[in-house]
């Protein structure tokens, strides 16, 4: 039975429909994933342009180096920018680079575009906005700060829900950091914890102009339907744009859908034309080679061995591409294939749980132990969130045991003294292979929020290159090395005790965190 029939309810008009089941398109090796390009642009690159980072400190240092080296553009999308010394240093790096651009001969070329979430970026008296206002005041022609406000937080709801709690309704959750033609994809925010002791994932795509153009256009599109931060700390919409919480919700969502899908579809068309041109050139090149020997070979670019697919999820706008691709990958994972899936917040959608429990592949799911959960030790109601995650984990584990799937589906808890855990993503090992040929990396957590409430983006990286596969394998091993296997005895430990009120409330609120 075609997996696309299973996913038919998710297909929306703006998304191109695939007419054949993906597993029958390209059955061999990494090429079996080429069906993804029926939904999104496919960017073929050399694996030598991909670098996997492993630590928060490495991520932070790379951000500073890339900002200082930027000449044309800096584009940063994040949930928020923190207010500590490390974040202030990033702002100083931006200021220094903008100053250098301003002093260069002629008009300054450098443009800085920052996209954050409105509610999270406005939290507290000192916040992301107050951190960035000096840049707007000093470089008004070069800097743009956009604050996305979910259209679902409006009216009486917006007036009644207090700060922090209003962030549960929906957020701008995409994390992309882009400098000229270099792109960093991650799940990490721009905050000191993510630069020091909060473990995440990070990948650098070097010298990738087409990918950088795509994410620049995507951030611009979301920025265009977001509130624009002004020099006096007020916000306003671009002229002629429907307001996200004062204007008509349906009209706003339709405009946002159109803007984002234009970016996806135009990039897809560009890449298809590029593929056709490259294919034609390679055919011409091979005939020339046969006639003229090696003379023509120097002019041909090396064949790509790695493919990047951007996967976008914006359910408020009716865009569900990441959900479709993730569900299809889980559906099509064959017997003896291994899927390593990690999330800092284990709260899988029912669809993802059903696929994991009902398919044939082996699963190794890495999640945060209570002590490394980002909410551990928080004040007030938030302090009970780790216990709620323990309850959700216990329910899932009980289901695994009931179905006698403990050998095939294994839970592992990340634990590391003095650290918190925020890594999310997936590594796919085909049957008989010791190395992964595909990874998903970006902002989604595979939970209800990621699928239904927030704006999310990740990339599928598919590679045939053994060295890059080895890099991805080492990244996976390094994360799982800090974990222990979950068993029945795990939930008998004193720190796993879940109060009755948490058990009662969790089913009611689990879709908000």
From TrEMBL:
Span of domain PLD phosphodiesterase: 168-194
Pathway entry: Phospholipid metabolism; phosphatidylglycerol biosynthesis; phosphatidylglycerol from CDP-diacylglycerol: step 1/2
Compartments where located: Mitochondrion
Gene Ontology biological process terms from the UniProt entry: cardiolipin biosynthetic process
Swiss-Prot/TrEMBL keywords: ATP-binding, Lipid biosynthesis, Lipid metabolism, Mitochondrion, Nucleotide-binding, Phospholipid biosynthesis, Phospholipid metabolism, Repeat, Signal, Transferase
Annotated signal sequence range: 1-19
Documented EC number(s): 2.7.8.5
GO terms under cellular component: mitochondrion
GO molecular function: ATP binding; CDP-diacylglycerol-glycerol-3-phosphate 3-phosphatidyltransferase activity
Top-level taxon: Eukaryota
Catalysed conversion reaction: a CDP-1,2-diacyl-sn-glycerol + sn-glycerol 3-phosphate = a 1,2-diacyl-sn-glycero-3-phospho-(1'-sn-glycero-3'-phosphate) + CMP + H(+)
Biological role stated in the UniProt entry: Functions in the biosynthesis of the anionic phospholipids phosphatidylglycerol and cardiolipin.
Family label: Belongs to the CDP-alcohol phosphatidyltransferase class-II family.
UniProt name for this protein: CDP-diacylglycerol--glycerol-3-phosphate 3-phosphatidyltransferase
Source organism per UniProt: Illadopsis cleaveri
